Amino acid sequence: MEQMTFGELAEKLTVFYREGKYTEALEIVEHNAHLFPDQVARITFWKMCLLSLCNRPEEVMTVFKQGLDSGLWWQDEIFTDPDLTAVRDLPEFERLTAISQEKYEAARTRIEREYVLLTPEPPSSGLYPLLLTLHGRNGNKDVDLRQWEVARQRGWLVLSCQSTQPVFQGAYHWDNTETGSADLLFYYKQVLQQHQIDPQRIVIAGFSQGGGLAIHAALSGKIPARGFLAVASWWADPKSLAPQRDDAQRVRGYFITGEKDHTFDTAKEIQKVLKESDIPFEEESHPDLAHEFPSDFERSFDNATGFIFKEQE
């Protein structure tokens, strides 16, 4: 029998969670946790949440303390999760949260920029089309590589960017737009030093919060992107995505939304802002899609690039 992937574990956990079967969710996490040592911080947090939902506060403290003693840390805002309501106001939980935040503050000063390149066969023209991809909140440079492989197969050089703003080990966010934008520009310049890039075929793509930053980056003009691809897009302040330059209308965008996605309304708010700024975009909406990539993402990617480069072809 093949070993379960981390994506499969997360999917099974989500199914149990949505059905309110917290004990079953906890069992499957505990049974498979040893398979994913690189996900120990995320899995430890899952255990804390599920134990809280199962009304086992003392065990939450035990798991929390063991995690801290082993060198783990989490940004304190993660502990506002509603799943931790059963323990959040307990003095011991508050004490452990303070220790975690102290460790986080020390760790984030040591975060370095990291990225992954997916390289296709060399193009006949000698110039690679470039796709910069941005992970969602609590994601990293590796989390969506399987989805973006379709771009490499179609001849795109894929630059998977990782934020330098940590939430916990292996998980990052793009909350500070200025810092996130600086990271993207750094990665872009690194690729320019390594490969010949077609300046007419650059797209910035992202999932969830990464989709929001992809829109911001494409419209800012700091990277000469022809367009953006936003999957399950989310941004804390949709109005801030209004373009700040006169020639932003040359950028074309493509949204992939799911009507069962909790960020669906936010995506609509973002679209309203862009429409008011005359930014051309197209939306692909899936009635049964939640906060995830569509199963036929290959077709979606082709549709997106077809729309973005329609005027050039």
Write the layout of secondary structure elements.
Blueprint: H1 6-18, H2 22-32, H3 40-53, H4 57-69, H5 91-108, E1 115-118, E2 128-134, H6 145-153, E3 157-161, E4 165-168, E5 171-173, H7 177-194, E6 197-207, H8 209-220, E7 227-231, E8 252-258, H9 264-276, E9 281-286, H10 297-308
Parallel strand pairs: 2-3, 2-6, 6-7, 7-8, 8-9
Antiparallel strand pairs: 1-3, 4-5
Describe this structure in words.
With 313 residues, the chain is of the alpha/beta class. It has 2 domains: 6-108, Serine Threonine Protein Phosphatase 5, Tetratricopeptide repeat, CATH 1.25.40; 115-308, Rossmann fold. Helices cover 42% and strands 17% of the residues. The protein has 10 helices and 9 strands. The chain has helices at 6-18, 22-32, 40-53, 57-69, 91-108, 145-153, 177-194, 209-220, 264-276, 297-308; strands at residues 115-118, 128-134, 157-161, 165-168, 171-173, 197-207, 227-231, 252-258, 281-286. A 7-stranded mixed β-sheet has the order 1-3-2-6-7-8-9, sandwiched between helices. Strands 4-5 form a two-stranded antiparallel ribbon. α9 (264-276) links the parallel β8 and β9. α1 (6-18) runs antiparallel to α2 (22-32) and α3 (40-53) runs antiparallel to α4. It is globular, with a radius of gyration of 20 Å.
